[in-house]
Automatic annotation (TrEMBL):
TM region positions: 206-227
Membrane topology: Single-pass type IV membrane protein
Species classification: Eukaryota, Metazoa, Chordata, Craniata, Vertebrata
Protein's name in the database: Vesicle transport through interaction with t-SNAREs 1B
Major location category of this protein: membrane
Length: 241
């Protein structure tokens, strides 16, 4: 499925729809007889072609991604409504044309040819009014569909903006999560360093205590040897003498 193919089909449908709409609104009300029948047949053939184009679009969309499929299906529904309005207007024009021929070719009225002609003119005028009303309704339907299509496009743009904003926020959350993970790793390393420093501090305290005890022992030995041992030797020398 290629977007170029779908766009080409939509452009072809739009051109065909404008042609049908122009024939119904601008040409058909001003023609009668065979020319009117020819225009109706042309519009009917165009509606068949437009229906085939819509079916081809639906087949192409079956292979489209879900997001693209949703936004294009809304357009197809609008196209379907447009085509239904054209078909109704065409059927109405055909029925009015048949009624006009019946009035013109039927048996004369009992009130005379002049009265019958007046009624024929009045009937044709009423039918033309109905046809114009039908084409006006078709125009209003087209405008309503155009507004709906514009609103759908605006809604689609808003949806894209929201998706982009959510994507940006997701990226920011990912970066924040990454920074938190890095911070957690740094805290773990800091705790290990503090534990090592604490063990080293305890070890240094023990070594310092041992050194102090050893120095005190040496000092005590020196004092003992210097004072007490010399005194004992002097006393012994005195006794011997």
């Amino acid at each position: 499925m290629s977007s170029e193919r779908l766009e080409a089909l939509q452009d072809e449908y739009a051109s065909l729809y404008e042609t049908m709409k122009s024939k119904l609104e601008n040409q058909l009300p001003h023609h009668h007889g065979e020319e009117k029948k020819r225009l109706i047949r042309d519009v009917e053939r165009s509606t068949e072609e437009a229906n085939l184009l819509l079916q081809e679009m639906e087949e192409e969309l079956k292979m489209a991604p879900p997001t693209y499929r949703g936004q294009t299906l809304s357009r197809l529904r609008g196209y379907r409504k447009e085509l239904d309005a054209v078909q109704r207007a065409t059927q109405l024009a055909g029925q009015l044309g048949y009624s006009t021929r019946k009035d013109l070719l039927g048996p004369p009225e009992p009130w005379g040819a002049a009265a019958g002609a007046d009624r024929d003119v009045s009937s044709v005028s009423a039918q033309r009014t109905q046809l114009l009303q039908g084409t006006e309704h078709l125009g209003r339907t087209s405008e309503s569909l155009a507004r709906s299509h514009r609103i759908a496009l605006e809604t689609e743009n808003i949806g894209h903006d929201i998706i982009d904003e959510l994507g940006t926020q997701h990226d920011q959350l990912d970066r924040t999560h990454g920074r938190l993970v890095d911070t957690g790793e740094n805290l773990s390393k800091s705790r290990k360093i503090l534990k090592n420093m604490s063990r080293r501090l305890v070890t240094n305290k023990l070594l310092l205590s041992c050194i102090i005890i050893l120095e005190l022992a040496i000092l005590g030995a020196v004092v003992y040897l210097k004072f007490f041992k010399n005194k004992a030797h002097g006393d012994l020398f005195t006794l011997t003498k």
